[in-house]
Amino acid sequence: MIKLNNISKSFKSINALNDVCLEIQEGEFFGLLGPNGAGKTTLMNILIGYLYADSGSVYINGEEVKRTELKFRSELGFVPQSVALYGDLTAEENLKFFGSLYNIDSSVLQNNIKDYLNAVGLYERRKDTVKNFSGGMKRRLNLITALLHNPKVLLCDEPTVGVDPQSRNAIFDFLEKLNREGLTIVYTTHYMEEAERLCNRVAIIDNGNIIAAGTTDELLKLLPEKGHIFVSINNLPDLFPDLNRFGNAIKNQDKYEIKLNEGINLSAFVKVLEEKSIGTENLILQKPTLEELFLHLTGRRLRD
Amino acid sequence: MRIILQLIRKDFIHFFKDKMALSLTFIVPMVLIALFGAVFGGAGDIEKLALGFVNQSTSSVAKRIENTLDTTKTFRLIKTFTNDKGEIVSYDSNSIKNAVISGRFSAAIVLPEDAFTDTSSSLKMKYYYDPKNDMESQIIEGVLQQTIMQSIPEVFTQSLNKKSEIALGKDSSKKFNSEINKVVSKYFNVDTADVFGSMNTGKSKQDSGNSGINIFDNMLNMEKHQLVGKNVANSMATRNVGGWAMMFLLFSLSAAARSLFEEKQTGVMIRLLSSPVTRTQILWSKYLYNMLIGIVQLTVLFLGGMLLFKIDIFSNFFNLLLVIIASSVACTAFGMFLASFTKTSAQANGLGTLLILTMSAVGGSWFPVSMMPEAIQFFSRFTITYWSIEGFIAVLWRGWGFFEILPYLGMLLGIGLVVNIISYINFRRGNIFKN
Questions:
Q1: What is the model's pTM?
Q2: Beta strand pairing status for B49-55 and B107-111?
């Protein structure tokens, strides 16, 4: 549905994007995961036509997008990183205004406004000025403003920045529902939890380069270790010789952390511990995360 | 104390990093002080005021008056003009009236053929004026009377002697003067030679110039003719409302243009540009909106002037509306220029305030341009304020029609066009639309 071919963009001496190639399929919930300054917003801005790429092309449904062409913009809905609304207008006035920029029938727009306000629990507050809304309410309104013209693709640029956990979950639920209904979503974030929860496929971006892309499972296969096991028990015995057979073991105060090697036999591991009178209740198994993958690929943490 | 010093140090670092704050603190006030000083005459004497002059008399008295006015520090006598054929010709009594009516200068003096004859007991002159600027009119009239009055005593004592010689004969006249001299010396206890001398020359030792004015008041027969604005109900408000309205219009339109920065800062701009809206459409909408606000604001201010000061805006309303529209076009262009030229709302605010105050001072919102130094008068022609004020005076004060106000409309629209082109180029280069 969306294809990016060798997109490069620089700002003076800073290379924001280097030969970025991506393909997003219809109906996908696609995540763009990377730390601040990685190039996520620049890529979004090129997708919506706000910025020119220095080189490369963007295709939507097989057709190349020129920045001056407006026809593609009706197919995209964009949720900016900031709350891009007029604070002194009411929620309804904001929605009417932004909706009116698209060529849609006024009755359709009116219905959409009502439906989406209801969907995010803001219908009762529609006559209130936005500046009096809480942060979470503003974010929800910011999100539905991008949906009024029934876009085929929703582009969300870190739409939950600064939102409380409750509102964030409400937004996630809403986005998941939209995706289930067939909306293609491209979602940028620097929270790996968000990417892991929401996205079918994720591209990891750092310093303007896509360093990995695929489903979460595909990406995690890139890690040499296949998970962590924490062994926690009072009067911890010396287990290094036994544990190092299964992976890299580190002793930390009263617990061991073992980064499991690929292809280990977990039952053999459990058996070894049982021989030392350590039951499974003393074990915590942790799956590898995208955070670890990022650390593995870049040597840095996502939020460094 | 160490903490306080650290906090002070931090503020200094911020201050020196903010170039706009630095310039607003030091450079801008200095520029404004220099500019206002020059505008209000602090840099030297008030500029010589233009005074039309026609001398149709052949008398020596009229010539003397002309010479006196020619050498005064206050006036610059204008006696000729270039006609349609490109020839330089002298003004006559009709053409000089037209020059005043058309605003070429605010006042003119005509000394008629019979300004002063051997049998005259007073000096005749015609004074034509257009009091479009109170201050200027008062200064011209005051200095003119003072200058002429200072010349009159001398002229008239000689004239009286001449009259007595004609009436009594030369010997009898001399004898008469001598007897008068003795009487005056006796009763007023002054030197006989001094009194006799003053009768011949018109000057006494005590004569300091102004002392003669009261005595000779009746000897100046000045016919005053107000050529423009005679029927204007509240002349002062009519003349001044345009200047003040323009200053407030510039402030409000530069503020409106700054909303582009707010839209960028809040992310609304990027949302707009992600929808089927072009940059050009955004700029046009902003431009037209501001222009409409400007038209409404000026119209409301003039309506307020009508209600409060009885300014007659409806007898020439169509032409007033044209000047209002042209002024709004130019002022809106100025606001857009500010937004295109600066990088932040704060910068636009600082630069806008500087330019608006400068334009208001130089363009004549506060002080008649005709009284400013010549260099400032030259620069005033590059300001929107100047052409708007002149346009408003043309329609409200002079009651001019469409063709007569075309130059003002042309200048305002021309300034608007040029500034818009510059702004458009600046917008294309970035800032507002750049990430």
A1: 0.74
A2: parallel
**Within an 8 Å CB–CB cutoff, is residue A160 touching chain B?**
no
pLDDT at B318: 95
Do the Cβ atoms of B270 and A80 come within 8 Å?
yes
A19-51: pLDDT as tens digits: 999 999 999 999 999 988 889 999 999 998 888
The identity of residue A272, as a single letter, is V
β partners of residue A188: A32, A157
**Whole-Å CA distances, A46 to A34, A156, A192:** 17, 13, 23
DSSP state of A279: -
Question: Does B86 contact A at CB distance below 8 Å?
Answer: no
The Cβ of residue A277 has, within 10 Å, a number of other Cβ atoms equal to 9
Strand (E) positions, A61-183?
63-64, 76-79, 153-157
Which residue, among A101, A138, A139, A149, would best test binding to B if mutated, counting the most B CBs under 10 Å from its CB?
A101
Chain B's closest residue to A143, CA to CA, is: B271
Which residue among A42, A48, A68 places its CB closest to the CB of B274? A48
Cα-only R_g, chain A: 23
- Nearest 5°: the CA angle B353, B357, B358 is 115
pLDDT tens-digit series, residues B252-284: 888 777 788 888 888 999 999 999 988 888 988
Closest residue by Cα to residue B290 from B249, B241, B341, B350: B249
